[in-house]
């Protein structure tokens, strides 16, 4: 079932409105098709995305009443929109609770945080994975979640699930880099580190060779080293990270990660319009 009503085709030549209506400007008879205005169509889209936004924040789904409250829409409107979204796979319903559907997953997986950053990083990240024989990635902090820009994993290795809450993210090397390089006041720093520790980390990352090391701080048996990638304007573009299954980091790995971050930064410098 479509969310929008398409406009009907124009009448055939010579089959216009009766002359009495055409001459007087009177409204068409009740049987005539009513075409939704552009504002009405936008309203339908706004409502559909309000439903999807509410469900995106509800891992356990929402019942109809809770969905209406979370979306700010009338219950009847929410029911109509939710059922239309179910019909096209954007929402799914189990036991009278609504969840984000598989169609949104497929669409969301195609989202690229920054196509230019991804293009500049793919080659260096792949090389880093080969040289380190470990998982390498470039990630950003988006809506309080870690998001992959690109990643490479040697044969026989597997992706690790990312932590989902700010406190857990900030215990990882990647999270510490991404939080510490945010402009002051733009983000609330998790309390797992003191203000002084955050300040010291922020100052240390001004060194272009700086890295942050996670000695099994986040996951037992896993060590990480991460370095910031900088845009030409010195804003942080993301964090390059290598994750190894070991009690300690191999010698030389921090330098390799720092070098890779510099390669990506140099590529961004060349690709960014002057």
Explained architecture:
With 274 residues, the chain is α+β, with helices and mostly antiparallel strands. It has two domains: 19-106, Winged helix-like DNA-binding domain superfamily/Winged helix DNA-binding domain (Arc Repressor Mutant, subunit A); 113-271, 2-Layer Sandwich (Beta-Lactamase), CATH 3.30.450.40. The protein has ten helices and seven strands. It has helices spanning 19-24, 38-56, 64-71, 75-87, 102-108, 115-132, 166-170, 173-180, 195-204, 253-271, and strands spanning 91-94, 97-100, 135-142, 145-152, 212-215, 222-230, 236-245. It has a five-stranded antiparallel beta sheet, with helices on both faces. Strand 6 (222-230) and strand 7 form a beta hairpin. The longest helix is centred in the N-terminal third of the chain and has 19 residues, at 38-56.
Provide keyphrases for this structure:
single chain, 274 residues, alpha+beta, Arc Repressor Mutant, subunit A, Beta-Lactamase, 2 domains, five-stranded antiparallel beta sheet, two-stranded antiparallel sheet, 7 strands, 17% strand, elongated, disordered N terminus
